[in-house]
Inverse folding.
């Protein structure tokens, strides 16, 4: 049994990837301690987990992040808390999330004077991600954040970790090719597959949602932003509806502040206002109920290095609900869809139109959806989402 410290610079309660990883560690008999932020909300009590929350106003945290590329305030802040975290709980190892937390974790371990191993969990290709965020690349913030510096900082931050966890085989291969100091045996793949037990539980609760439609529904679930591609396809949806194709579009998720004006202009336009249903937020427990009401799952992400790094959890959610997927050709998601034969890939308006036309056929949708569910269950049988546990098996054996 290991005492594992999990560090993330956010709230813990809404991060389903982190929660699932912790549950897998608990299932193996390890003790898990979490260090995260407290933004002054009411948080759940988590059984079998010790959660240490750092109280800090969210706006102040955002300011520190804004300055973190060129100033060490944020890293020093975290290093101090991580050192105390290690000492107070006599931790055997640290599992920190996201590239930008790597140096702070390294410094925290050093301050604690405990020579413990450190695993870095990469939720995304961070240099590519921050260079796509509107808040980081527009106006005066660009001058302060200087997002392009992360392309040169990446190698140094990767070197601090003993092991890496990534989202996909393609991202693992990309890192090995770009950084000769990384070895395949250092990197473990943990795809964003949902917690199957939770989904089964929510589905068995038979929760109801109000949405209904007599014609096929395209569905997007997640953050609404230009970088996610959903806003780019709205004029295409307008054109297809004008041409007489019969379908609806259901979008659930918060809109990035920088993209709100464009998004609202589209969905309230004469061409879309009677064909689009927008819901700003829905608890994930209602997702199985929504999946029973919709027909086509959208994954319209911009094709770039960030989205090439892994498969978004929404694709696995669509597969769980036996919903065919309509997606762009980002490496990891294209590979998943083609291997599972559970959806179609588009690259431009004409191919998007062709895909929609095919997917309006219910028999075709049923076949693709069934393929997706079968492929997803096979991934669980292969324990594709448990590979990272080998890191801690090895540490435990060494401890013995």
């Amino acid at each position: 049994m290991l005492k594992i410290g999990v560090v993330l610079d956010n709230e813990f309660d809404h991060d389903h990837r982190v929660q699932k990883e912790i549950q897998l560690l608990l299932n193996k008999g390890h003790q898990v301690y979490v260090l995260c932020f407290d933004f002054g909300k009411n948080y759940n009590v988590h059984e079998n987990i010790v959660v240490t929350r750092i109280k800090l106003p969210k706006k102040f945290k955002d300011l520190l992040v804004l300055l973190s590329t060129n100033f060490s305030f944020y890293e020093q802040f975290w290093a101090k808390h991580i050192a105390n975290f290690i000492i107070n709980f006599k931790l055997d190892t640290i599992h920190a999330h996201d590239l930008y937390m790597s140096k702070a974790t390294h410094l925290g371990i050093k301050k604690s004077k405990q020579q413990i191993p450190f695993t870095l969990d990469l939720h995304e290709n961070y240099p590519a991600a921050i260079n796509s965020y509107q808040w980081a690349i527009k106006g005066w913030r660009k001058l302060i954040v200087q997002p392009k510096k992360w392309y040169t900082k990446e190698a140094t931050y990767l070197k601090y970790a003993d092991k890496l966890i990534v989202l996909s085989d393609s991202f693992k291969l990309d890192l090995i090719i770009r950084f000769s100091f990384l070895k395949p045996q250092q990197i473990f793949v943990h795809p964003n597959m949902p917690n199957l037990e939770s989904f089964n539980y929510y589905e068995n609760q038979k929760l109801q949602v109000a949405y209904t439609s007599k014609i096929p529904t395209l569905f997007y679930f997640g953050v609404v932003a230009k970088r996610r591609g959903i806003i780019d396809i709205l004029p295409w949806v307008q054109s297809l509806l004008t041409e007489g194709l019969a379908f609806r579009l259901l979008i659930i998720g918060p809109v990035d502040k920088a993209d709100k004006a464009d998004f609202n202009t589209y969905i309230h336009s004469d061409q879309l206002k009677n064909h689009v249903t927008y819901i700003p937020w829905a608890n994930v427990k209602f997702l199985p109920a929504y999946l029973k009401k919709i027909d086509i799952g959208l994954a319209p992400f911009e094709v770039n290095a960030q989205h090439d790094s892994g498969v978004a959890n929404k694709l696995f959610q669509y597969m769980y609900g036996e919903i065919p997927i309509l997606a762009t050709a980002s490496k990891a998601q294209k590979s998943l869809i083609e291997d599972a034969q559970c959806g179609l890939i588009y690259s431009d308006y004409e191919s998007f139109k062709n895909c929609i036309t095919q997917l309006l056929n219910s028999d075709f949708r049923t076949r693709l959806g069934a393929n997706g569910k079968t492929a997803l269950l096979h991934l669980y049988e292969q324990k594709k989402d448990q590979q990272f546990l080998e890191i801690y098996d090895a540490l435990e054996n060494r401890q013995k």
Observations:
- The domain at 3-161 is CATH 3.40.50.2000 (Rossmann fold).
